[in-house]
Amino acid sequence: MHQFSGGTPFGSVTGLRAMFSNVICSAVTATVLLLAAAPPSCWSYGIAGQIPKWWQNTIIYEIYPQSFYDSDNDGFGDLRGVAEKVSYLQELRVGAIWLNPFYKSPLKDNGYDVSDFRKIDKRYGTMEDFEYLLETLKYTSRSNPIELIMDFVPNHTSDQHEWFKKSVQKIEPYTDYYVWKDPKGYDGEGKPIPPNNWESIFAVGRPGSAWEWNPERKQFYYHAFMVEQPDLNFRNPKVIEELKDIMKFWMDKGVQGWRLDAVPHLIEDEELRDEHGNHDKTQNLPETYKIIEDFRAFIDAYSEENYVNIFLTTEGYAGPQETVKYYGTDGRVGAHFPFNFLLLTDFNAETKALNIKNTIQSYLDRLDDFKFPNWVSGNHDWPRIPSRMGASSATDIVNIMSLLLPGTSTVFMGDELGMDSYWNLDREACPSGVGDDYRTPARTPFHWNSSKNAGFTQASKPWVPVNPEYYRTNVEVERTLRSKYQTSHLENFKSLAALKRENAFMYGELKMYDLTEYVFAFTRQDDNNIYLAIMNLGKGFSDPFVLEREIPDLAQASPRKIVMRSVNLQSECSNVSSCYDSLTSGEWSMPPKSGMVLAFRNSTTDSSKSKLMEHFESFRAF
């Protein structure tokens, strides 16, 4: 729980809390800017006395461009294809799109091996296509602006990058742009011995696999990932300045945010000491956090100079203590937030209600007022939701969690439809190296409709095979399933996205409950409404529970409407009365992997408002 503190011209904060325990925080927050007052009883979760920035409490929609939409019918998704689908993004109420890499690349690692950071790979289109996409997002979406976040890969380049080629030849200033080291010695056959035992992420179990001998330079270079992805040397200030220049190039074009890839790997132990397990000399070193703070200072200075608000997030799979450090400190800030992967790492088909309750609470408890929460429910590196959760209906459960818990939501394209990983795809029909990649089943083409290739392309063959389930899991079909008796994952997602903008979900307190071993619930509320999200995480029907006994706040509240119900709850909850009767009967067993969101009138709130409260309300439109 994160509350504001400090002085106010109206008396003590405690006094204000007593007078207005249920102040609508959006109105108060706007008033704060004018009156320098601290909002009372406000669970800000990182919005500390200010109007929310564009990246706060929004939906970030990750787009894997080669699989989103093919505009030129070559079987490969492109930037123009993203621009042609902006109206769909508006339909989802997303606040930003995060585009996976589209830089010039040999595509050994699907674009994360960059050979030129200032050029667009011709398979994705041209710079004109990119500028058209920015223009389309800006002008088509004026009533619902959509910002563009670029994927940036600062840790390494492709071995085809000009920097690396010149570094091999020791052409200045590129000689030390990469991590080069002499061999430890030579074996009996005269072969060079790697400097230490560091292992590549992609080649675990092979001692020295993170080092590759270059016969021309006669030294080893370090690569945390593929051999074709040499690591940049972050101990060289010129490298950092080069990367900042690249960021400025794209920000000058209108990019509003950055997702920094693989940040735990940015810097390594300077003494090259052997590791003793868990990459203790090559990940999350203290200097890494200072690098992120330096990037943040750079984009903040750019933002101030150019009257924009550039956003910075980081990707790094690390423990809670290491991850929270990427926020920086209130004296020297780091990322606006590091991606929170708990809905990926700690939420699966076996998770119990108490476990997920404790996971969420532990995460929120680590956040100070300047640390804003966020939730990642899927991405291009993980199996899709149905595979992770053991049922397609669990799509709705994960989306409830991602969109309605406090903070910003990041979702992977297709998760709003319930798309699943295509585990049995024909790997021989994939490009070289792609078929063997364990991540490819989650990266198959997006499902637009029931036509050939799911409407992704008019080409005879897409770049990777389409999941055959596209005939029933696609945008066109799911748009039509909206009635009293049926719904779809897409329609449920849109209902949740609309709800996310309500005051209760922007500022309302979060209360969580484990009603049974597998039934998890939470509430968010404002002056007028209490919203209940309830879900059965189990594989079977739940044990019965008495809702009002477990959640006292609902005892005086009256049910108003069903906001959404999962696709497997249609017959159980066709109207709010029958649904509420089931929930309060003490006899109802909730179906497996099901969930719903209900709205209640908050009967405990005094309907009459003081003059001061009306004054606060008058600033709502500020």
Automatic annotation (TrEMBL):
Its EC number is 3.2.1.20. It comes from Bemisia tabaci (Sweetpotato whitefly). This is alpha-glucosidase. Keywords: Glycoprotein, Glycosidase, Hydrolase. It holds the Pfam family Alpha-amylase. The lineage of its organism: Eukaryota, Metazoa, Ecdysozoa, Arthropoda, Hexapoda. The keyword Transcription regulation does not apply. Residues 62-447 form the Glycosyl hydrolase family 13 catalytic domain. The keyword DNA-binding does not apply. GO terms for molecular function: alpha-1,4-glucosidase activity.
